[in-house]
Amino acid sequence: MTADELKSIISASLRCDYIDVDGDGRHWTALVVSPEFEGKRSIQRHQRVFATLGARMKTDEVHALSIHALTPAEWQAAQQA
Predict the structure, then answer these.
(1) What is the pairing mode between strands 18-23 and 27-33?
(2) How far is CA 51 from the centre of its chain?
(3) CA–CA distance, 18 with 21 (Å, rounded to integer)
(4) Cβ neighbours around 27 below 10 Å, total
(5) Burial of residue 29, with CB atoms counted within 10 A of its CB: 0-12 exposed, 13-18 middle, 19 or more buried
(6) What is the pTM of this model?
(7) I need a surface site. Which of 5, 19, 30, 40 has the fewest CB within 10 A?
(8) What is the tens place of the pLDDT at every residue in 55-76?
(9) Side-chain half-sphere exposure of 25, counting CA atoms within 13 A
């Protein structure tokens, strides 16, 4: 799997204002900015991203994924800091 493929999978099921994925083919880091995260705790945000991957996590197609899940307001504040 490539970073672009992983981005496409996530963004197909989750409305993303911004998404960046980096990794080595099995171990990934994703920055996902979505208005769907508004009012959600960190664990709920991560669960939402993991849900987009479905069986890919169970079949080891994506072995590890570190997620930074932000709302658009949080992302904007981080950019200004």
Answers:
(1) antiparallel
(2) 10
(3) 10
(4) 12
(5) middle
(6) 0.91
(7) 5
(8) 888 887 888 899 999 999 999 9
(9) 0
